[in-house]
TrEMBL record:
Chain ranges of the Aminotransferase class I/classII large domain: 65-405
MF terms in GO: ligase activity; pyridoxal phosphate binding; transferase activity
Cofactor(s) of this protein: pyridoxal 5'-phosphate
SUPFAM superfamilies attached to this UniProt entry: PLP-dependent transferases
Pfam families linked to this entry: Aminotran_1_2 (PF00155)
InterPro entries reported in the protein's UniProt record: Aminotransferase_I/II_large, AON_synthase_class-II, PyrdxlP-dep_Trfase, PyrdxlP-dep_Trfase_major, PyrdxlP-dep_Trfase_small
Keyword Cytoplasm applies: no
Superkingdom: Bacteria
Keywords recorded for this protein, A-Z: Ligase, Transferase
Keyword Amino-acid biosynthesis: no
Annotated protein name in UniProt: 2-amino-3-ketobutyrate CoA ligase
Gene3D superfamilies to which the protein is assigned, alphabetical: Aspartate Aminotransferase, domain 1, Type I PLP-dependent aspartate aminotransferase-like (Major domain)
Length: 424
C-alpha cells in the first residue's frame, strides 16, 4: 500500500481499491501525508476568527490573517449586530438548546416564528414551510420521506450531494447539466412508468455559480405532469429584485412545487427549509424521521428570523455584494482568467489541472489569500478550479490584493494562456 511520494501523483490516491475500513483510512492518511510532503495544505485548516472577509487561520502552527473567499456568509450577516443581538436574546430567553425533536416537545415559539417568517419571505402562507437543522437535511430528509420505490427523482447532474442522498429509497435518473433535451427524454420515458416524477435542480449551482434555465425547465416539468423542486441555497439574498433568489428573477416564486434552501449562507447561521403545499409540509413534519428522531435547532436561530427581515430592511448589503462581484469578476477576466458561466457570488477561476490547481491554492495562501482549490471528486479532474465566494464585506483593498496575486501567478504560470489554449 505504501506509495513512493517522490514519484506519486494525485491519481495514485484517487482509486481506492477493494480495501477494508482500516486500510481505506490508512490509504487516505497517506494521501494527506503526500499533500504535506508537497507543501500543499489539506484545507481542513483551523480558523481562529469569524468567517468574515478577513480570517485568522493556523497554518503550520502559525496564525495569520488572510483575505478569505471560503465563506458563504454572502451578506456578512454572521457579524451583523442586529442578528447577533437577536441570537443572544434567544439564548438569554430560552437557553442554549431545545432539548427534543419537534414531535416530542422540541417545537418552540421561536421555531414557529422562523417557519412563518421564511414562508412569508417567499410570499407563502403560514404552514407552507418546514425548517430543518441543516440545509443538507432539508433536501435529503424531504426527498427520503416523499419519494418511494414506485416514484422517480430526475436530477441535474450538478445538484448538491444532499439531493443524491435523498434519493436512496427511490429511482433516480440524472441528466447532463442544464440539458433540456436530455431532461425531456427522461420525462417522456418516465411518463407511464412511475407514480410521482420529481425534477430536482438548483437555482444557482454551487461550483460554477451559474443559474438554471428555470422557466424552460418549469414549462417542461408541467408539460409532462411532473413536480419541480428548486434548491436555491446560493441564490436567495443575492438574486432577484428583492433578494428572493433565482425564482424571483424567473417569475416562478409562487409556482414551483418545492423551494429548498439553507440558513447557513445569506442568513448567517445554520439550518435549512422546505417551502411547499401545506398538506405536504404537514406530512413532512409528522413523518420525516429527521423531524421525529432528531433534536430541533437551538434558540440562537432567532438571529435567522432577524436576518430574513434585514434582507428587506437593509438592501444596501445586496447592492454592495453586486458591486464587489462585478468588480472582482471584471478584474479576473481582464487578466485573461476563465470565470466560466457564473452569474452569482460564486466566482470560480478555472484551471483545469489538479496538481496546478493545488499549487495555485498554495501560492495564494503564501500571498495571504484563503480560497478553496476544488478538485475531483467535487468536480471532474479537468474542471479543477479555485472557487471563491465574494461577500458584501470584502473591501476594495481585499479584492485588489487578490487580483494582484492572480496577476503575479499568471505571469509565472501562464494560467490565462492555458485557458486560451484549452478553448482554442
Ligand atoms: N444545497 C446547496 C446547493 C449547497 O451548496 C449546500 C451547502 N453547501 C447545501 C444545500 C447544504 O446546506 P447546509 O450547509 O446548510 O447543510
Amino acid at each position: 500500500m505504501s506509495i513512493n511520494f517522490a514519484t506519486a501523483t494525485f491519481r495514485d490516491f484517487e482509486n481506492i481499491p477493494d480495501y477494508n475500513m482500516t486500510q481505506r483510512a490508512e490509504h487516505f492518511y497517506e494521501f494527506l501525508e503526500y499533500l504535506k510532503s508537497n507543501g500543499h495544505v489539506n484545507y481542513r485548516l483551523k480558523n481562529n476568527s469569524s468567517c468574515n472577509s478577513v480570517m485568522n487561520v493556523d497554518i503550520d502552527n502559525t496564525s495569520k490573517d488572510y483575505v478569505s473567499f471560503v465563506s458563504n456568509d454572502y451578506l456578512g450577516f454572521t457579524q451583523h449586530p442586529k442578528v447577533k443581538q437577536a441570537a443572544v436574546e434567544g439564548i438569554m430567553k430560552y437557553g442554549t438548546g431545545a432539548g427534543a425533536s419537534p414531535l416530542i416537545g422540541g417545537h418552540f415559539s421561536y421555531h414557529d416564528d422562523l417557519e412563518k417568517k421564511i414562508a412569508s419571505f417567499f410570499g407563502r402562507k403560514d404552514g407552507e414551510a418546514v425548517i430543518f437543522t441543516t440545509g443538507y437535511t432539508a433536501n435529503s430528509a424531504t426527498l427520503q420521506i416523499l419519494l418511494q420505490k414506485e416514484d422517480i427523482a430526475i436530477v441535474d447532474m450538478a445538484v448538491h450531494t444532499s439531493v443524491r442522498e435523498g434519493c436512496v429509497f427511490t429511482n433516480s435518473k440524472t441528466f447532463p447539466h442544464n440539458n433540456l433535451e436530455a431532461l425531456e427524454q427522461i420525462l417522456i420515458k418516465s411518463q407511464d412508468k412511475f407514480r410521482t416524477k420529481l425534477v430536482i435542480i438548483d437555482g444557482v449551482y454551487s461550483q460554477d455559480g451559474d443559474i438554471s434555465p428555470l422557466k424552460e425547465i418549469y414549462d417542461l416539468v408541467k408539460k409532462y405532469d411532473a413536480y419541480l423542486m428548486v434548491d436555491d441555497a446560493h441564490g436567495v439574498g443575492i438574486l432577484g429584485e428583492t433578494g428572493r433568489g433565482a425564482l424571483e428573477d424567473a417569475g416562478l416564486m409562487d409556482k414551483v412545487d418545492f423551494i429548498t434552501g439553507t440558513f447557513s449562507k445569506t442568513f448567517g447561521s445554520v439550518g435549512g427549509y422546505v417551502i411547499c403545499d401545506e398538506k405536504i409540509a404537514t406530512f413532512i413534519k409528522f413523518q420525516s424521521r429527521q423531524q421525529i428522531f432528531s433534536a430541533t435547532a437551538p434558540p440562537s436561530i432567532m438571529g435567522i428570523t432577524k436576518a430574513i427581515e434585514l434582507v428587506d430592511e437593509e438592501p444596501m448589503w445586496r447592492m454592495k455584494l453586486w458591486e464587489n462581484i462585478n468588480y472582482f469578476k471584471k478584474g479576473l477576466n481582464d487578466i485573461g482568467l476563465d470565470t466560466g458561466t457564473t452569474s452569482s457570488a460564486i466566482v470560480p477561476v478555472k484551471i483545469g489541472d489538479q496538481s496546478l490547481t493545488g499549487n495555485i491554492g498554495k501560492i495564494l495562501l503564501e500571498k495571504g489569500i484563503y480560497a478553496n482549490a476544488i478538485m475531483y471528486p467535487a468536480v471532474s479532474r479537468k474542471d479543477s478550479r479555485i472557487r471563491m465566494a465574494v461577500m458584501a464585506t470584502h473591501e476594495r483593498k481585499h479584492l485588489d490584493k487578490t487580483l494582484n496575486a492572480f496577476e503575479d501567478i499568471n505571469n509565472k504560470l501562464h494560467i490565462a494562456k492555458k485557458f486560451n489554449n484549452n478553448h482554442a
